[in-house]
Amino acid sequence: MRGQTGGPAVRLVAVGGICTTTLYRVAAVPPLPGKVLAHDAAEVVDGMAVSAACAFVRLGGAASVWGRVGDDARGGAMRAALAEAGLDVAAVRLVPGGRSSIAVAVIDDRGDRLVVPYHDTSLDQSADWLPLQDLGGVDFVHVDTRWPEGAAAALVAARRAGVPGMLDADVAPPEVLSALVPLASHAVFSDAGLFLHAGTDDLEEALRRVADRHAGHVGASCGAEGYAWIEDGDVRRVPAPRIDAVDTLAAGDVFHGAFALRLAERAAIEEAAGFACLAASLKCTRFGGRLGCPTRAEVEAFARGS
């Protein structure tokens, strides 16, 4: 099987927003106005699809990122950081005159976080430069909602090429979710994104509403509650292991990357979701956002209880 028997690794193309995020770990976030001293800090180049691609590589796959950064000093450094993480960055475009995205994440000792991103709305939204012809040799396409034009182009091209296309359907403007969900072969929501899109906060009802009008896979990553999806008309679930959370930032992204990896390796949904829940849970025990993604050997050892 490709990616598991010594052959070439399965390949992913990830399309989405790219950001430099500064992380501060604090005991607790005080009420405003206030000031608090951090007891740990890190800086990471991330983004929803980007972090999923980093997880895909960390867990044994190969991945390319297609996205945009500004042609400022930060943009060049972001490309270099992603290349250092093992990603192919040939299709990370430096947009003339654009400002690269930045964010701050404040993470408390329970692992909960406050994230404040800034994205330059004048950054060129066009996707007509994407190398869509290259998708023929790819095993999986994964997109997020932070660059809808690029996500739509990649999902349409993936379908034409017969390549599975997964959408990280997190919270986004309703019109963006409505446009992108039908294009994906795998609509993998956050629970909050699912409730927004379906118009109900009942998980099973929300999954059924979306699945009734979507021919592909429909599921939701529910944090500590694991993963739920519709299969043959029934709601199925895989639990997440109980852990002491240190940092939940990028846990959903690691889930998506791990899920895509195992699906690309032809694992069944239940097996892939179980592996992804383990990977995401392990990530939550480590500070640093997507930098805390485990290796495949670590996930397999965790599954064995060793």
Sequence of secondary-structure elements: EEEHEHEEEEHEHEHHEEEHHH
Low-confidence stretches: none
The neighbouring-strand order within the major sheet is 5-4-1-8-9-10-11-12-13
Derived structural class: alpha/beta
State the share of residues found in helices, binned by percent: 25-40%
Q: What is the correct CATH architecture?
A: 3-Layer(aba) Sandwich
User: What is the CATH topology descriptor?
Assistant: UDP-N-acetylmuramoyl-L-alanine:D-glutamate ligase
Count of the domains: 1
| Oligomer classification | single chain
Tell me the radius of gyration: 18 Å
CATH class: Alpha Beta
The shape is globular
Provide the β-strand percentage band.
Answer: 15-25%
Tally of alpha and pi helices? 9
Total strands: 13
Biggest sheet character: 9 strands, mixed
Write the CATH homologous superfamily: Ribokinase
Plain-language structure description:
The protein is α/β, with parallel strands linked by helices and 306 residues long. Helix 1 packs across helix 7 and helix 5 packs across helix 6. The chain is built from 9 helices and 13 strands. A hairpin with a 2-residue loop joins strand 12 and strand 13. The model has no long low-confidence stretch (mean pLDDT 95). The protein has one domain: Ribokinase (UDP-N-acetylmuramoyl-L-alanine:D-glutamate ligase). Helix content is 33%, strand content 24%. A 9-stranded mixed beta sheet has the order 5-4-1-8-9-10-11-12-13, with helices on both faces. Strands 3-2-6-7 form a 4-stranded mixed beta sheet. It is globular, with a radius of gyration of 18 Å. It starts with 10 loop residues before the first strand and ends with a helix.
